[in-house]
Amino acid sequence: MTKLTKNQKLALEKIEAGKAYTLAEACEKVKEITYTKFDASLDIDVRLGVDPRKANQMVRGVVTLPHGTGKQIRVLVLCTPDAEAAAKAAGADYVGLDEYIEKIKGGWTDIDVIITQPAIMGKIGALGRILGPRGLMPNPKSGTVTVDVAKAVEEVKKGKIDFKVDKNGIVHSSIGKVSFSPEAMRDNAREFINTLIKLKPATAKGTYIKSIYLSSTMSPGVKIDVKSVDE
After folding, report:
1. Please, which residues bridge with residue 160 across strands?
2. DSSP state of 4
3. Which end of the chain is more exposed for a tag (fewer CB within 10 A), N or C?
4. Across-strand partners of 215?
């Protein structure tokens, strides 16, 4: 059994066992129990009442967080020459095509998001084995395959993230930083949860949102009372 550190013990002592906190309380609590020396990520885990093995119960979507992610998102745009200027003006960190495809083939993946055009996907398909496992493969459903690459770059830079349920029925995502105010943390969490609710599959039966936990990097999870999300 892993031995708890002094800070982990302190954090656990501040969480009431079995209690489901309101969303506002949970945001305050996560700030209180975070002892990292760096600006920890704010993470959310939502267990859904779906069976991801069934195609009609797969939950996947995108959300633009009101206060952004707090991270510097490195964006690569793979596009035709006529779209390069607009992509750069929108804030893309890297813009090009063939030279970056070759770099990726050589193992370069020092980026967070890749945005491309539908006409370019034929060239990018060969990169699936490299990009797929890293979650970098552009996808129309997440808005990263589009004719308007400039708009897509702006949205990502403002805090647009994509997510999907895992094989255990859990959606996990980082939705900000612990340095955010409790109010900003709450706004981001509420937007994320409400987006999940809107995506409820028609075939999902019983309780849809089974549990919600908020945590930071290396902190214990704080259980949230689902009914408190819109308070």
Report:
1. 64
2. P
3. N
4. 43
CA distance 60 to 198: 11
Structure tokens at 136: 């970098």
d(CA 3, CA 143): 43
Name the residue type at position 76. L
Q: How far, CA to CA in Å, does 14 sit from each of 1, 188, 220? A: 22, 24, 10
Sequence-separated (6 or more) residues with CB below 8 Å from residue 107: 130
Read off the tokens for 75.
Answer: 């964006």
Block residue for tokens 């305050």: 28
Longest dimension (CA), the chain: 58
93-107 pLDDT, tens digit per residue, is 999 999 999 999 999
The radius of gyration of the chain from alpha carbons, rounded to an integer in Å, stands at 19
Q: What's the burial of 38, exposed, middle or buried (CB within 10 Å: 0-12/13-18/19+)?
A: exposed
Predicted TM-score (pTM) of this structure = 0.82
The CA distance from 83 to 95, in Å, is 9
The full length of the chain comes to 231
By DSSP bridging, strand 41-48 and strand 209-216 are antiparallel
Does residue 2 surpass a pLDDT of 70?
A: no
SS3 of residue 135 by DSSP:
coil
